[in-house]
Design a protein that fits this description.
The chain is of the alpha/beta class and 427 residues long. Strand 2 and strand 3 form a beta hairpin. Helix 2 crosses helix 3 and helix 9 crosses helix 10. The protein is globular and about 65 Å long. It starts with 20 loop residues before the first helix and ends in a 5-residue tail after the last helix. About 7% of the residues have low confidence.
């Protein structure tokens, strides 16, 4: 069991804050931590100027965040104008705390550890022997434990450290704050459950409870498209954008939309379900009885089946096929592989144009295998979008680790919204 998060330290009864104070304190702490994320190393005086908080308030919040292991003073002090006391900047502490990430896809589960900047420190794929939920989630929890142990071992010095008193002194390993879980399909954030994922055969799976019981940690759950919108806003190209649309194209095809720092979830977090939107020019039969539905047309299962029928080497058909092989075949110059990836990119471009016309986002981010790895596929998508809107479209900021980032960002989004609640102070 992981059980590495420290328990919260409640206020003494005699010093309970007023009812309005917790919300104010939570918001201010979030603003300070996000300023450090975006500008660090940064002086406290600069944080006060950027946020509009008083210097005393910034100093107080920095002290709280430091005690929780979220930030630390930078090693090199800065002088203001070369006179007076040096300004000692603060920065995120990327050494003491991590979050776990779990993403369940159709063929495998990805487990990962991420630092406070959303960088993947360790990652592992666990192919499904079975998609029975309890077994998948148990393997994911065990996989996180193994990654944390390995990361701790890699940070243990072999020799005496400068401030150690014994030859076998050890540097404390990283502490895991919590676990983020992401998946496609219908994921209810508030309930912490996968309501429905037809391709996995999951229905009303209480993910949060199952992972929390196995790890002893706080667990946060969301759909992977919404998770990746938050990742783009915190760590990627969409930072500072007023509105962001994300389109995820894998075996599952879904979307997410955020405005003013809030992702739209809708009742039971069902917003973003676009699997059965009709796609112009689509011909693929769908299980719903129609043809040309977005997911049926663009899914990786459809792509791999078409590649198999076209004789692309290394593709074994729709079941168990790995779409990475198609990208590899295209890189090797196989004309059929290139054609199929370009056709799919154009269709994805039509989907982007459709969604963008409805939502009019400031920025659009696309996660699709061909667009991420091939310039010609990106160009084909942008040509289909056309006009000035094409300039707002870009591939994911996390091309090599998008599923790991999706899982971890669910927990990181909670942390940056409520750093005092998500990282209880240690006694």
């Amino acid at each position: 069991m992981l059980r590495t998060a420290a328990p919260p330290s409640p206020y003494p009864h005699s010093s309970l804050p007023r009812a309005a104070d917790p919300d104010r304190r939570r918001t201010s702490a979030s603003v300070v931590l996000r300023s450090v994320l975006e500008h660090g190393p940064v002086a406290r005086s600069t944080i006060a100027r950027l946020t509009g908080l008083s210097p005393a308030s910034v100093t107080d919040h920095c002290a709280r965040l430091t005690r929780r292991g979220l930030i630390r003073e930078s090693a090199v002090p800065r002088r203001s104008g070369g006179v007076g006391r040096p300004h000692v900047p603060v920065d995120l502490d990327a050494t003491r705390l991590v979050v776990g990430g779990v993403h369940v896809a159709v063929p495998y589960t990805t487990v990962a550890l991420l630092d406070l900047r959303g960088r993947v420190l360790a990652e592992r794929r666990l192919p499904h022997g079975t998609t029975e939920p309890s077994r998948v989630l148990a393997r994911a929890a065990d996989g996180l434990t193994a990654l944390l142990d390995r990361l701790s071992d890699s940070r243990t010095p072999d020799a005496r450290t400068p401030d150690s008193r014994t030859p076998d002194a050890r540097v404390p390993g990283p502490r895991m704050l919590g676990v983020g879980f992401a998946a496609g399909g219908w994921v209810d954030r508030e309930a912490g459950a996968v309501v429905e994922h037809p391709l996995l055969g999951w229905r009303e799976v209480a993910v949060r409870d199952a992972l929390a019981a196995r790890t002893g940690l706080p667990v946060h759950v969301d759909g992977h498209a919404r998770a990746l919108v938050n990742a783009e806003r915190l760590f990627g190209r969409a930072r500072g954008s007023g509105s962001v649309l994300h389109l995820f194209v894998g075996n599952v095809v879904d979307s997410a939309f955020a405005t003013h720092d809030e992702v739209h979830h809708g009742p039971r977090s069902q917003a973003g379900s676009i699997a059965h939107l009709p796609l112009a020019g689509g011909t693929e039969p769908c299980a719903c009885g129609r043809s040309g539905c977005l997911q049926a047309e663009l899914s990786e299962r459809t792509l791999c089946r078409r590649a198999y029928e076209a004789g692309v080497p290394g593709i074994r058909g729709a079941d168990g096929a790995d779409p990475r092989r198609l990208v590899e075949a295209a890189a090797a110059g196989r004309p059929a592989a290139v054609r199929l990836l370009l056709e799919r990119a154009r269709m994805v471009g039509r989907a982007v144009a459709l969604l963008a016309d409805v939502l009019n986002p400031e920025r659009v981010v696309v996660t699709e295998r061909g667009v991420v790895h091939r310039e010609d596929c990106l160009a084909a998508l942008l040509a289909e979008v056309g006009g000035q809107r094409a300039a707002t479209v870009a591939p994911t900021s996390f091309p090599e680790s998008v599923l790991a980032v999706a899982g971890g960002s669910v927990a990181l989004d909670v942390l940056y919204r409520d750093p005092l609640g998500a990282s209880p102070e240690r006694n």
